[in-house]
Amino acid sequence: MCSLIMGVSYRSLGNFDLALKTLLKPFAYFKRIGRYPIFLEGSCNSLANVNLELHNYQEAFSIFSIGYEKGFEIGDVFFPIRALIGMGKAKMQLAKPR
């Protein structure tokens, strides 16, 4: 939980490298244990947004998808909407001609 809060704080302060390194641990942990789905959704949202800001669009899309599926599974409203917005942003960037 502390790593999640620290990662979100690093992202808010604009340090995306530290945020990425810090958010990987809670994402993997909450995904592995299968409990506390709201924390998994929060870590998915933060980690995917960091990847989106670092132009890792495919990675961001896949992490947003995990968060969306988990939110849909438990009946949450907030994080699935955020995940759909992020998935749309990632798809738009992937479809851009280079």
Arithmetic mean pLDDT: 93
Residue share in helix? over 70%
Tally the beta strands: 0
| CATH topology title | Serine Threonine Protein Phosphatase 5, Tetratricopeptide repeat
How much strand?
A: under 5%
**Terminal CA distance:** 39 Å
CATH 4th-level superfamily: Tetratricopeptide repeat domain
Anisotropy-based shape: globular
Uncertain ranges: none
- Rg on CA atoms, Å: 13 Å
Structure description:
This protein is an all-alpha fold and 98 residues long. The protein has one domain (2-95): Serine Threonine Protein Phosphatase 5, Tetratricopeptide repeat. It contains five helices and no strands. It has helices spanning 2-12, 16-33, 37-53, 57-74, 78-95. Helix 1 runs parallel beside helix 3 (37-53), helix 3 packs parallel to helix 5 and helix 4 (57-74) packs antiparallel against helix 5 (78-95). The longest helix is centred in the N-terminal third of the chain and has 18 residues, at 16-33. It is globular and about 40 Å long.
List the helices and strands and how they pair.
Blueprint: H1 2-12, H2 16-33, H3 37-53, H4 57-74, H5 78-95
Labels describing this entry:
Serine Threonine Protein Phosphatase 5, Tetratricopeptide repeat; 0% strand; single chain; 98 residues; 84% helix; mainly alpha
